[in-house]
Amino acid sequence: MNSNPRLRPCPACDKPISKRARQCPHCKHVVQENMQRAKSKPWFFPAMGLFAAAALILVAFGIVRSPWFAEKGIFGLASVAGNWPTWRGPGYNNTAVGDAPPVRWDEKKNIIWKTAVPGSGHATPVVWRNRIFLPAADEEQQVLSLVSVHSETGSLIWNTEIHRGGLMKKSKKNSYASSTVACDGQRIFVPFIVNGGLWLTATDLDGQILWQKRVTSFKSEYGYGSSPLVYKSLVILAGDHLEKSFLTGMDVMTGEIVWQTPRKRGGSYGSPVVARLANTEQLLLSGQGEVTSYNPLNGQPVWRSRANARSIVGTVAWYEPFVFASTLNGTICIRADGKGNVSRSHVVWENRVKANVPSPLVVDDRILVVQDEGFVTCLAIDTGRQLWKKRLGGNVSASPVLAAGNVYLPLEDGRLFVFKAGEKFELISKNDLGDGGFASPVICGGQIFLRTDHYLYCIGHG
Fold first, then answer.
1. What residue numbers bound the domain in which 316 lies?
2. pTM higher than 0.85 for the full model?
3. Residue 202 and residue 181: Cα distance in Å, rounded?
4. Upstream peptide bond of 321 is cis (omega within 30 degrees of 0)
């Protein structure tokens, strides 16, 4: 037990952190402010535990259908326990919490199951309890669908057709199902571009369509790849394209637009994320040569900074008080406590360490930048100084994931590297399932869910 009065255990990973910390430096869990006040209230934790358990039971049996629980963070508590409800996970940082997954596997070892997924796509799986959800595209039949797989057995539960026909222009490396869906515990939100528009569809957990909205017209350059997120009672979606770009917040229950903020015209593919920085929750999005912070409740811009490329594919990373974006021209670090245009006042450092598709990953006080050509560069967070650089020997489109102190990074050819990213590179293992792909791995409950070109794998301790 830790005896330092200035420290307390992180509620997610149980490692010691400062009582004033808003984010755990070990697992990157965002610490709620009310938890910091709870110590003075001996009734708080037992009552909160009973309330959360009761709320989850009510939702599980369909007694409660209100988004109030999502607004109050009940689903956030559940996500820490073993769900992966959205792109980059429950903390929007590609960091897993909980039991450590395997570091070595092959077709005969630590493969819990593998299943053929109908259709193709680059989107990562989303996990909610014993269900996995992922979008898929049958290009020959021109069918875009949402698929559900049982996380314990790999069996197909349902396959819901979302759109038929009207597929739009994309690049050769993109897919028609590249956007990871989002789940709030009651609904799944699925974006596709078809018939000249960007559409968002909500289904329930049984695959029944609840609502479907054409958000706006969409002129494609290389396809679509941005993923939605759920914030309180809103599902937030970005639409950077060749005409009227936008960022929008829609009601999770009805799909009605609550707010919509215009953005600069042009194709970008990054996804919005929410982070608590400078004592407030900020909605962060890169694209069109900028990194921008918005108020997630109303879409109003808070600050913006120049980035170093017009079209940006990866999602930003952060570490209080910094935000990081990597592009084809380099990586930039911005302090997140400004207002308005902070390009001259809040850029902390920038360099020529490049990454196009993979998103950066924070590991302790370091940041990893993965180049599409297979170079991994480790930078000091505060200065951008290069600590080391390693060539893996293959192309990369997936983003690295951190779990139990190890980084998991798949290559397009099917090899998956596991390594430690400390002051130096330390290879743990190379694993090859013989089937390549572009999707990032998902790690929760001590298991790895990996989508390849032909299969969905569950990798765990066998």
1. 111-459
2. no
3. 10
4. yes
